[in-house]
Design brief:
By secondary structure, the chain is an alpha/beta fold. It folds into three domains: 199 residues, Rossmann fold; 88 residues, N-(1-d-carboxylethyl)-l-norvaline Dehydrogenase, domain 2 (Orthogonal Bundle), CATH 1.10.1040; 132 residues, Rossmann fold, CATH 3.40.50.720. The protein has 18 helices and 14 strands. The radius of gyration is 23 Å and the shape is globular. The chain binds nicotinamide-adenine-dinucleotide. The site of nicotinamide-adenine-dinucleotide has 26 residues, from helix 5.
Length: 435
Amino acid sequence: MNITCIGCGYVGLVVGTCLAEQGHRVLCVDSDVKKINGLKRGNLPIYEPGLGEILDRNVKEGRQSFSTSLAKGMQTGEVIFIAVGTPMSDGGKADVSAILAVAREIGQHMGGYKIVVIKSTVPVGTASRVARVIKSNQRRPRDFDVVSNPEFLREGTAVKDFLEPDRVIVGLDNPRPRLRKTMETLYRGITDTEHPLLFTNTRSAELIKYASNAMLATRVSFMNEIAGLCEEVGADVREVARGVGLDSRIGPRFLEAGVGYGGSCLPKDVKALAKIMRGHGLSPRIIEIVDRVNEEQKLLPVKKIKTLLPTLKGKKIAIWGLAFKPGTDDMREAPSLAVIKELQRAGARIQAFDPVAEARAKMLLKHVNFCNDPYRTLTGCDALIILTEWNEFRGLDKKRIKGLLKRPNVVDGRNVYDPGEMRRLGFNYLGIGRG
Ligand SMILES: NC(=O)c1ccc[n+]([C@@H]2O[C@H](COP(=O)([O-])OP(=O)(O)OC[C@H]3O[C@@H](n4cnc5c(N)ncnc54)[C@H](O)[C@@H]3O)[C@@H](O)[C@H]2O)c1
């Protein structure tokens, strides 16, 4: 099939590249000229393991190309994916202005029947709204369908997640068999009985995405609350999570206690879902608490460090890990932003290391001394705080860590190390929920 994918960010680029990998011809469109020029030269705008090799191959074999022209995308594409951002606006509402801008252009350039697929995470009812915008911007009436097809990939494992999805959700309001068939054909190489394609209406599809993210966020906040109790009663949250997760009704994933969830999805989608509920006169009680627990959890490392260093003024703190999770350079809503700003407010000086997120972090943080090596970050520091559980931190030499720190204070916000071992080695070690 000929596909156009509008938006070359963390989602759009993966979707476009993986569909090209499936044998489709894909034109990836973005309004960011620098991004498109970079992609034409073979430069990936994001860090995503495995993506670069697939993209290079598809470009070389002529299945994938890039453009800033949406008009061109409307000429070549039979199926038009929209994967532009829907960031959080004031009050937590999802900002759909980029979606609507794209819908207007799609309407203006529609020369024949198109299937418009919304990949972005959008409030319930957006597919209908996009259909209205397309229709009202058409120069001549043209037939088209709007499909809601939310994406569930995770940064860091995005390629695998797209190619081996737990499920593919396709929301349609038009019972037209041709439309259903095209969507089945599009995902034929990816879906089967183990990776099912589920047809719903557009509103259910839109809500499935928000409900999924809110459920994941709820599990994280729930375990973070349990972690607080673990510290009081002498339980270990990792043991508790393992025991709880072995219940087949619950399952083991998304039960890790830590410094809270971040990233471009969970925080904004939880807030947006609360906003949608309020908009319908409902009270989002669970979701509001999940969000509040998370906001407080993000600052827990600062509270903990104060128990080791009562005055932070003039102290030098080393931070390991800036990205919101390992495997990505995405800094959106990363707990490190809140922690570093709070430490700086209290007068501390910061030295930081992240294996891939430094460039993005530099755009968001001021007065931070960035180091290109985890050990060097520790020199002369009064404490180390770990905020992202990059695998490379696990194998580091703990005696060397202790030797480099001015004081052996460690707040491990991701429970990377074993508390018993760290204490035996002479660290003042505080994890999360490890009573
Ligand atoms: N990042 C994730 O892990 C993830 C996972 C699932 C769903 N989502 C959802 O997917 C959507 C995209 O997220 P993302 O992380 O890829 O965002 P992103 O910010 O990385 O990328 C969005 C891209 O859209 C481009 N864009 C904006 N307006 C445009 C326009 N008018 N025309 C053409 N291009 C335009 C931007 O230049 C940017 O490159 C969001 O709704 C998000 O909630 C994200």
